[in-house]
């Protein structure tokens, strides 16, 4: 194919057109296609993907598809994820770093001709409700139609996002010419454009006549972020978090940098709405590491009578101060990209209902009658399946039928518990923030922080046993501060400082901070707390605390429930004691882990967190 790929661009935004042409000249696709986000486009692209063998249409679910990835491309690749800040120090000790100049040189070679034989899709998108003040714009260029259709589920993608990019561009131009006319310099930061630029390639160019494979990808992978210029470049993977660049790359890594610079928060948090029998609604945000039940908590069915939970978001929260000094949160996403295994009628009936149609399932198993299945969907597995690698599977097979990180991609609007205000552009006021992780030992069911600063200390010390959501050994304990370890786009020590700054904001009416742990195990290795819908009992205690109605017991690590509603629960006295007491000896050992963790941040660790550590040691005696 020739290199001449000049296309009629459906936009007046010259910066966007110039960038698209520049990327096309570099990557040399056969065609350039601008995505409008229409139904017609979805149908055409999903048909194409079925034809190419990437997707299989599900006979049993309307407008739904099954994708089997390359078996080497099944999760986020954290060791191939880079923060390319000018200074290494700004990436911090928890991120991989490559100097932007060097990274750009590498990409200059890697992306040269990398879209040959493919179509380059230009995907304009908006993170957050269209036109909302907290919302942000982006454009992803990708050579994967799977990514293009997935972006339509996960973001507000297409025509309307493009119009907003144009409006913002026009407004800026007007502003600039006015400033010039007044002889002044622009107040705006000219490093940044009106939209985040995100380039993605599966890294598998096709020679003339070369047949494609169902899931093209490359063994060379880079997921790179340029925080200063607000750019994302991703190469070699078609998998969710590596390829749907609006999600982790933009809404967390790049947005966390924007948030630091502009005084807001971009967090790895679900947002839920809780209505007690009294009717006084509360909104709660909660951060847990990947695959620790954020989606389940966001869609929880309370077991306690009269309480109602509704869903705003299941993975990411952007929070800004409102005029009343409260933090207002939006869910920047439009869909759920959830872990399928373990999602079933008992654990998350609302997710199951959400998945009735218009969904894409990746690396799950296929039933003989054209539906999907995964471990935990039903108690009894079907007698026969096709597993995620395309092999015949029976319950006697040695391996799970679905990959442990198999995913569903589904529209949030289909969730039966989605709150009517989930798309309110001004967001919802947050009353409480929860942190937590998977901890078999030591950590009580719920702890209330003593102050905002102490809450930041709790967030900074989040640790969790590893899950299948990222490459690496499952079960190992790792520190995952604020559940942001893989997602913070700058120095994590500075990020702690930013959280402390948020707490010092004049006139702030801050949420209260809690630490929860649903995953405590007994001596036999069994979970002590039933979890899922029963977690509503913990939410109830939290709301009663907010209302000044529930008692708490001071302990060295924070405030624990004096009493928890366990009515009707099959929980022994010993179990309850384990969940709601602090073992000083065990906690002295826990506390001993903190200095090593904190020291990794060197000078960037705020002094206040050392103060909190010392105070904890004093309280532990
Ligand atoms: C992902 O893995 O691509 C992802 C979006 O989410 P998480 O790891 O947080 O489940
Ligand atoms: Mn996540
Ligand atoms: Na993942």
From TrEMBL:
It is an enzyme of class 4 (lyase). It catalyses: oxaloacetate + GTP = phosphoenolpyruvate + GDP + CO2. Keywords: Cytoplasm, Decarboxylase, Gluconeogenesis, GTP-binding, Lyase, Manganese, Metal-binding, Nucleotide-binding. Pathway: Carbohydrate biosynthesis; gluconeogenesis. Mn(2+) binds at residues 248, 268, 315. PANTHER family: PHOSPHOENOLPYRUVATE CARBOXYKINASE, PHOSPHOENOLPYRUVATE CARBOXYKINASE [GTP]-RELATED. Binds 1 Mn(2+) ion per subunit. Gene3D superfamilies: 3.90.228.20, Phosphoenolpyruvate Carboxykinase, domain 1 (3.40.449.10), Phosphoenolpyruvate Carboxykinase, domain 2 (2.170.8.10). Substrate binds at residues 76, 239-241, 290, 405-407. One of its GO terms (molecular function) is GTP binding. The keyword Lyase applies. Belongs to the phosphoenolpyruvate carboxykinase [GTP] family. This is Phosphoenolpyruvate carboxykinase [GTP]. It comes from Nonomuraea thailandensis. InterPro entries: PEP_carboxykin_GTP_CS (IPR018091), PEP_carboxykinase_C (IPR013035), PEP_carboxykinase_GTP (IPR008209), PEP_carboxykinase_GTP_C (IPR035077), PEP_carboxykinase_GTP_N (IPR035078), PEP_carboxykinase_N (IPR008210). GTP binds at residues 291-296, 407, 438, 532-535. GO terms for cellular component: cytosol. It is found in: Cytoplasm. Residues 19-260 form the Phosphoenolpyruvate carboxykinase GTP-utilising N-terminal domain. One of its GO terms (biological process) is response to starvation. Catalyzes the conversion of oxaloacetate (OAA) to phosphoenolpyruvate (PEP), the rate-limiting step in the metabolic pathway that produces glucose from lactate and other precursors derived from the citric acid cycle. The active site is at residue 292.
């Amino acid at each position: 194919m020739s290199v001449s790929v000049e296309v009629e661009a459906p936009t007046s935004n010259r910066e966007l057109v110039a960038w698209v042409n520049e990327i096309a000249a570099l990557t040399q696709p056969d065609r350039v296609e601008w995505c409008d986000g229409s139904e017609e486009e979805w149908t055409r692209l999903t048909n194409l993907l079925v034809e190419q063998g990437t997707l299989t249409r599900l006979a049993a679910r309307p407008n739904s598809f099954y994708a089997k990835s390359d078996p080497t491309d099944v999760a986020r690749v954290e060791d191939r994820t880079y923060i390319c800040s000018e200074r290494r120090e700004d990436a911090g000790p928890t991120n991989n770093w490559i100097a932007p100049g060097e990274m750009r040189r590498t990409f200059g070679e890697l992306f040269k001709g990398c879209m040959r034989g493919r179509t380059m899709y230009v995907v304009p998108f908006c993170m957050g409700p269209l036109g909302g003040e907290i919302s942000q714009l982006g454009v992803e260029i990708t050579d994967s139609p799977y990514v293009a259709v997935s972006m339509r589920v996960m973001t507000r993608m297409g025509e309307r996002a493009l119009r907003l990019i144009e409006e913002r561009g026009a407004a800026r131009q007007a502003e600039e010419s006015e400033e010039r006319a007044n002889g002044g310099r622009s107040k705006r930061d000219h490093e940044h454009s009106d939209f985040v630029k995100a380039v993605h390639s599966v890294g598998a160019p096709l020679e003339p006549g070369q047949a494609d494979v169902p899931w093209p990808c490359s063994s060379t992978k880079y997921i790179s972020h340029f925080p200063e210029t607000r750019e994302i470049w991703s190469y070699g993977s078609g998998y969710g978090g590596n390829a749907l660049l609006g999600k982790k790359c933009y809404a967390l890594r790049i947005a966390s940098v924007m948030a630091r610079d502009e005084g807001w928060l971009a967090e790895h948090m679900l947002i839920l709405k809780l209505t007690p029998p009294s009717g006084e609604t509360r909104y709660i945000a909660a951060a847990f590491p990947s695959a620790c039940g954020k989606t389940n908590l966001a869609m929880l069915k309370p077991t306690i009578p009269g309480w109602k939970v509704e869903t705003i978001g299941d993975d990411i929260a952007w929070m800004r101060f409102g005029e009343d000094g409260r933090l207002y949160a939006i869910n920047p996403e439009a869909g759920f990209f959830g872990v399928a295994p373990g999602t079933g009628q008992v654990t998350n009936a609302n997710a199951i209902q959400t998945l009735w149609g218009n969904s894409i399932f990746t690396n799950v198993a296929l039933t003989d009658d054209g539906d999907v299945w995964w471990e935990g969907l039903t108690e009894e597995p079907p007698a026969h399946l096709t597993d995620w690698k395309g092999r015949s599977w029976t319950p006697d097979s040695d391996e799970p039928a679905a990959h442990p990180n198999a995913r569903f991609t589904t529209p949030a609007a289909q969730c039966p518990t989605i709150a009517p205000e989930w798309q309110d552009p001004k967001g919802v006021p947050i009353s409480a923030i929860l942190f937590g992780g998977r901890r078999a030992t030591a950590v009580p069911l719920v702890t209330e922080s003593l102050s905002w600063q102490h809450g930041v200390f709790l967030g900074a010390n989040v640790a969790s046993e590893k899950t299948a959501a990222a490459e690496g050994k499952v079960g190992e304990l790792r520190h995952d501060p604020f559940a942001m370890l893989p997602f913070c786009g700058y120095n994590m020590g500075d990020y702690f400082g930013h959280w402390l700054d948020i707490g010092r904001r004049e006139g702030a009416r801050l949420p209260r901070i809690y630490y929860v742990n649903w995953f405590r195990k007994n001596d036999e290795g069994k979970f002590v707390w039933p979890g899922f819908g029963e977690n509503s009992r913990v939410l109830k205690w939290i709301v009663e605390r907010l209302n000044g109605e529930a008692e708490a017991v001071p302990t060295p690590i924070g405030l624990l429930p004096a009493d928890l509603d366990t009515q009707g629960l099959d929980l022994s006295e010993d179990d309850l004691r384990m969940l709601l007491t602090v073992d000083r000896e065990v906690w002295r050992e826990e506390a001993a882990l903190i200095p090593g963790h904190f020291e990794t941040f060197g000078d960037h660790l705020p002094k206040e967190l050392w103060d909190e550590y010392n105070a904890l040691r004093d309280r532990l005696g």
